[in-house]
Design brief:
Helix content: 40-55%
Number of helices: 11
Distance between the termini: 41 Å
Number of strands: 15
CATH architecture of the largest domain: 3-Layer(aba) Sandwich
Subcellular location: Cytoplasm; Nucleus
Family: Belongs to the eIF-2B alpha/beta/delta subunits family. MtnA subfamily.
Number of domains: 2
Radius of gyration: 20 Å
Oligomer: single chain
Catalytic activity: 5-(methylsulfanyl)-alpha-D-ribose 1-phosphate = 5-(methylsulfanyl)-D-ribulose 1-phosphate
Strand order of the largest sheet: 7-6-5-8-11-14-15
GO molecular function, one term: S-methyl-5-thioribose-1-phosphate isomerase activity
Bound molecules: 5-S-methyl-1-O-phosphono-5-thio-D-ribulose
Protein name: Methylthioribose-1-phosphate isomerase
CATH topology of the largest domain: Rossmann fold
C-alpha cells in the first residue's frame, strides 16, 4: 500500500479500473479522505484485517478485486490452466483468512473458485483462466450496487406498509451499512436512503457503535453528506430513545445470517434487538443473499471474530491515545448474534423474508423460490 492519494468528499470506498484498485482508508474518516493503492492480494488482506475497508459486502469485493489487480499485472505465467486455477484458489483461501465472521467473503471466494476451475477445464491457456477470474470479480462489483438498490426499494415499501404513520418514519440504525460498507448505496442505510428519497423519513438515528465508532465516524458522515435528517446517539442511549417513542423501526445490516434467520452483526446489535422487543418496535435485518449462510442451521455455529484489546484501551477504536487503565483485561468480540425470535423481517434484494407466525425464518425455502423464478 505504497501511495496515498488525497481526494475530496467522496463516499466511494472502492475505486477500481482494470489493473488498479484504490481503497478509501476508512480509519481516517471523517477528517481525511485518503485512498490507498492496493497492488495485490497481500495488500488486500492487510487492508481488510486493519479495517482500511470494512463492512461485509465491501470486504468481499475488495478482496476479489485485490487479486484481480494482482493477476492483471502478473506478466508472464509459465504454468498450465490448472496451475493458474490453483494459484488463484490458494490466494482466495488466504484472503478469506483476513476476517472470519462476514460470510460474503467466503461466499465470493467459493463462487470465484468455481469460475476458475471451470475456465481451467475449458481452456488450454492459463491466461484465459486469469481473464475469467478478473471478469467475474468485476461483475461482483457491479452487481452489489444493483442489489443494494433493490434492498432499499423492498425495505422502504415494506416498512411503510407496517407503520401506522407511513409518511413519518424515524429509524434507528447501528454500525455502518452504507456506501462505505458496500460497493455503493448500502443495505440498512440503503433502506434509510430509500425512505428519504420517498420523502417519508422523519429522522435517522445512528449509534456511535463502540469501540470502533463506525456509526459516529462513518454513518454520521454519510448521513450528513446526503443531507438526511439525522441524530447521533451514544450506544447506551438507545433504550431511552425507544422509551421516549422516537424510534418507529430499527434496521441493521448483517455479517452472516444462518438458515433459521439468527444474525451475526456488529457488537451491540443484540442489545438493540432486545430493547426494540421490550418497546414493541419492529427490528429488521437488511442484507443481500450473499450474507446468508444456509450451511449453518443456527447462529450458534457462527464464528465470532475477537479483535485487539487496543480497540478498547485506546480512543478512536485503538487509533488514538490510551483511555483505559493499563493492566485491565479486555473482551472485545466484534460481532454478536441476534436470535431470529426477535427479528421481525429480513430485507433482501429479492424481497422481505418474514416468519409468518413461526419462531424462526425458513430462508432455504425463500432462496429456492426466488431462484426458481429466474
Ligand atoms: O467490523 P465491521 O465494521 O466490518 O462490521 C460491519 C457490520 O457489522 C455491518 O453491519 C455489516 O457488515 C453489514 S455492512 C452492509
Amino acid at each position: 500500500m505504497a501511495n496515498e492519494v488525497e481526494q475530496v468528499n467522496s463516499l466511494q470506498s472502492i475505486c477500481y479500473t482494470r489493473g488498479s484498485l484504490k481503497l478509501l482508508d476508512q480509519r481516517k474518516l471523517p477528517l481525511e479522505t485518503i485512498y490507498l493503492d492496493i497492488a495485490d492480494s497481500k495488500d488486500g488482506w492487510v487492508a481488510i484485517k486493519d479495517m482500511v475497508v470494512r463492512g461485509a459486502p465491501a470486504i468481499a469485493i475488495a478482496a476479489a478485486l485485490s487479486l484481480a489487480v494482482e493477476v492483471s499485472n502478473l506478466g508472464a505465467f509459465s504454468g498450465m490452466p490448472k496451475d493458474a486455477a490453483s494459484f488463484l484458489s490458494d490466494k482466495l483461501d488466504y484472503l478469506v483468512s483476513s476476517r472470519p465472521t462476514a460470510v460474503n467473503l467466503s461466499d465470493a471466494a467459493t463462487k470465484l473458485k468455481e469460475v476458475v476451475h471451470k475456465a481451467a477445464a475449458a481452456s488450454s491457456e492459463a491466461q484465459n483462466v486469469f481473464q475469467a477470474y478478473v471478469e467475474a470479480a468485476e461483475v461482483m462489483l457491479e452487481d452489489d450496487v444493483a442489489s443494494n438498490k433493490a434492498i432499499g426499494h423492498y425495505g422502504a415499501s415494506f416498512l411503510q406498509k407496517q407503520q401506522s404513520d407511513p409518511k413519518n418514519i424515524s429509524v434507528l440504525t447501528h454500525c455502518n451499512t452504507g456506501s462505505l460498507a458496500t460497493a455503493g448505496y448500502g443495505t440498512a442505510l440503503g433502506v434509510i436512503r430509500a425512505l428519504h428519497e420517498k420523502g417519508v423519513l422523519e429522522r435517522a438515528y445512528c449509534t456511535e457503535t463502540r469501540p470502533f465508532n463506525q456509526g459516529s465516524r462513518l454513518t454520521a458522515f454519510e448521513l450528513v453528506h446526503e443531507n438526511i435528517p439525522a441524530t447521533l446517539i451514544a450506544d447506551s442511549a438507545a433504550a431511552a430513545l425507544m422509551k421516549a417513542g422516537q424510534v418507529k423501526a430499527v434496521i441493521v445490516g448483517a455479517d452472516r445470517v444462518a438458515a433459521n434467520g439468527d444474525t451475526a452483526n456488529k457488537i451491540g446489535t443484540y442489545s438493540l434487538a432486545i430493547s426494540a422487543m421490550h418497546h414493541g418496535i419492529p427490528f429488521y435485518v437488511a442484507a443481500p443473499l450473499t450474507s446468508i449462510d444456509l450451511s449453518l442451521s443456527s447462529g450458534e455455529e457462527i464464528v465470532i471474530e475477537e479483535r485487539s484489546a487496543k480497540e478498547l484501551l485506546h480512543a478512536r477504536g485503538g487509533l488514538g491515545e490510551q483511555v483505559a487503565a493499563s493492566g485491565i483485561s479486555v473482551w472485545n468480540p466484534a460481532f454478536d448474534v441476534t436470535p431470529a425470535t426477535v427479528i421481525s423481517g429480513i430485507i433482501t434484494e429479492k424481497g422481505v423474508i418474514t416468519k409468518d407466525g413461526a419462531d424462526s425464518f425458513d430462508i432455504k425455502s425463500f432462496a429456492e423460490k426466488v431462484s426458481s423464478n429466474h
